[in-house]
Specification:
This protein has 438 residues and is an alpha+beta fold. The protein is built from 10 helices and 6 strands. Strands 1, 2, 3, 4, 5 and 6 form a 6-stranded antiparallel sheet that branches. 30% of the residues are buried.
């Protein structure tokens, strides 16, 4: 085979391999993507989220803290321990019925009505706040897992495409080598092609490093002994069927930060009521039983045992302690009110900001689907036709292939970014926003 025929054969091979790659591209076309009317997370991501919720150390810590807080509720509502006593009489004291030998005592402290209920309600509010902190940790971990998963999927898909482009570049270099041997191309054009291959190899190294880092991140979030294997599948284009009003209502109902602030406000209200109740006395009731010896008494009741029921009451005398406690509780109550107002304001801002970021990311995806990708596809086909007709040189044609690939990679990043912004919005809202997914 002559050099010219060999060059033509290699050129046809380059064109054919690229057309095969283009027609069988793992990226969905704009027409196919426009038909997607709903968004559903993959079973793979659901599995990872479920695993993280069950095994992540931060979630397990928050879960244990919530369980501990719930166990404080029955403690707060319980009566103080009763006291029991025994008194042995030394030099036996005489009574009218005879000498007293020993005495048995029992006493129970009873707080003023309302104190035990207030303590129970304060403990319940603290447990509710701890549960809200648990939900906050869960949402944060779910967001981190989703973010790492989307980044890992798009990185692996990009790696596969870069490998294919690397093959096309090497075939193009072979064509240029053949043309350079016949002086149809210059040395600079050949060197430019070789630089493209080197840059492509560097990009592969960077993508591999990013892939491995994301796998380790997922391994850490899932508390696994080895990194998970994630399939490089096509990411779905996210859509959100809810209006802003619906999202805002969900955030006010479900956002963990708001729930925590509301629970802490309730706790501070109960603490203030309890501090005021310190002005009310507590009571104690007891029972005492004395054993009496007959001795030398001539009383008709000689030797008869005695019993009594003592009733005591505390005297809230030291107002410097009680008044200071009330002032402290009132200050904490005002601080809790201010904190709730701050949580409401931050909810309005953070949820709205996350919503706007998602809408912008979604518009970017639509721009790629409806404008950039169709135009780039038409331009590439036009350049391919010119190259086949000899009107376009190999170097520029390969550059157009790379440009098209970069656009595809950018579109992939845009879809992943929209998915991450949706996950961020759900984190801020504190609830899933896709119907049928929980």
């Amino acid at each position: 085979m002559s050099i010219s025929k060999k060059s033509a054969f290699i050129n046809l091979l380059v064109i054919g391999s690229f057309l095969t790659w283009l027609s069988g591209s793992p990226w969905a076309s704009a027409e196919e993507l426009s038909e997607l009317s709903s968004f559903n997370r993959s079973a793979e991501l659901f599995s990872l989220l479920h695993e993280a919720l069950n095994n992540n150390p931060e979630i397990m810590t928050a879960q244990a803290q919530w369980q501990a807080a719930k166990k404080r509720i029955p403690q707060a509502a319980a009566l103080p321990d009763p006291t029991a006593g025994y008194t042995y009489m030394g030099p036996t004291p005489d009574t009218l019925n005879g000498p007293e030998k020993d005495r048995y005592e029992f006493e129970q402290m009873i707080p003023f009505p309302g104190k035990l209920a207030g303590r129970r309600n304060a403990a319940k509010a603290e447990a509710a706040a701890q549960e809200a902190r648990l939900r906050m940790v869960e949402r944060d971990i779910m967001f981190k897992v989703s973010q790492a998963y989307y980044d890992l999927v798009v990185t692996q898909r990009t790696l596969a495409l870069v490998d294919e482009i690397k093959s096309a570049l090497r075939q193009a270099e072979a064509a240029l080598q053949a043309q350079y041997s016949t002086s149809k191309v210059t040395q600079s054009e050949l060197l430019k092609s070789q630089m493209e291959i080197a840059q492509n190899s560097q990009r592969i190294f960077e993508l591999e490093q990013r892939r491995d880092t994301l796998k380790i991140l997922l391994q850490s979030l899932l508390n696994r002994s080895s990194p998970p294997e994630v399939e490089a599948k096509e990411l779905p284009v996210p859509t959100l069927p809810l209006s802003w009003e619906d999202i805002e209502a969900k955030a006010r109902q479900n956002r963990p930060g708001l729930k925590e602030s509301r629970a802490m406000l309730k706790k501070s209200q109960h603490d203030l009521n309890l501090a005021k109740l310190e002005n009310a006395p507590d009571f104690s009731i007891g029972f005492e039983y004395s054993r009496i010896d007959a001795g030398e008494s001539t009383s008709a009741n000689a030797g008869q045992d005695a019993w009594m029921i003592p009733i005591k009451v505390t005297i809230p005398l030291w107002q410097n302690r009680i008044g200071s406690a009330i002032d402290e509780a009132r200050a904490n109550w005002k601080a809790a009110q201010a904190r709730l107002k701050g949580s409401e304001n931050s909810t309005d801002y953070e949820v709205k900001a996350a919503y706007y970021r998602f809408v912008t990311a979604q518009k970017t995806v639509l721009l790629y689907e409806n404008t950039l990708l169709p135009q780039a596809r038409l331009m590439l086909r036009s350049q391919q036709a010119g190259y086949g007709a000899g009107e376009q040189d190999a170097v520029n044609y390969v550059a157009s292939q790379i440009n098209f690939f970069n656009l595809q990679a950018a579109y992939s990043e845009a879809v992943a970014n929209a998915l991450k912004e949706l996950a961020s919005l759900e984190k801020e809202v504190g609830a899933d926003l896709i119907e049928g997914e929980d």
